[in-house]
Design brief:
CATH class: Alpha Beta
Helix content: 25-40%
Number of strands: 9
CATH topology: Rossmann fold
Shape: globular
CATH architecture: 3-Layer(aba) Sandwich
Oligomer: single chain
CATH superfamily: Vaccinia Virus protein VP39
Number of domains: 1
Strand order of the largest sheet: 5-4-3-6-7-9-8
Largest sheet: 7 strands, mixed
Length: 321
Amino acid sequence: MASTHGTSDWLTERTSMSLDTGADRHLWEGGRRYHAYREGRYSLPNDELEQQREELMHILVMDILDQQLYLAPMTEPPNKVMDLATGIGLWAIEMGDRYPDATILGLDLSPIQPTSVPPNVTFQVDDVEDTWVHENDYDFIHMREASGYMRSTPAVIESVIAHLKPGGWFELQEFHWVAEKEDGTIDPNIPVNRYMEHMMSAAASTEGRKIPIVPEIGEIMRRAGFVDIKKKTYRVPYGAWPTDPVARRRGAVLSVNAELLLPTSDKVLGYIGVTPEQAEVLYADCVKMFHNPSIHCFATYYVWYGRKPEVTNSSLGESNR
């Protein structure tokens, strides 16, 4: 489990993030802006275009979940909430609006969140893959669209359970971008799947990590010690080919989001020798797929949630031996 101990100097750096740390500065590469704090830890940019994509993703996810911010079956509204890799902070802000008596903390490598937020919402520049310095009494921790970019999602989930109070809940929401056909089969020749194959190869060869990891989150949570683990999945079409108006709307938004996401992969694909020209052809093939009404395939949106076990008298007795 992650430790909450460290040197006083290190704690000061992590908890009082001043302008001198450079957290408010950014790096530019290939015309895109990236985070400077823990440079290179997260591969996506943090500029205005990426922030627009994040906002579009938030709108899409809220549509998929019928405007629910979470699905975990908490018997009472959460009081102390942490949002990991909060990005532009929309989820945290909406949680603050809906639960004004709760305390909401959003963590991210980039200080790109709004300054005008509900009084119960705060944001902090931090690396959730580092040792956590936070208290261990959170009753809800949330993470969305981040596990595919982490070096070790299992390690982060171990930190999560260590910082939840007994009975607290964790929820992870994320797209599984591999495209499935209407019958549930996977065609490796679908452009999105060729793109995902390249991305998986790049992640494995450069960082030793495995993506996509989303379908395996439940087992990772179980090994970390969570109970009452549940999974909910939602099929979202690539493109606006469905006749159903809701599915058509979601498919159109997903495709726009994917079109914005694709060009951010140049650096990662370059790790395995894919040239910018080759990457551009692959992106173009994906975009053509999105607009081809004869190609019927889906991405899958996953929601995993689970609970930290309650402290029992027997476990207290064992810990005191």
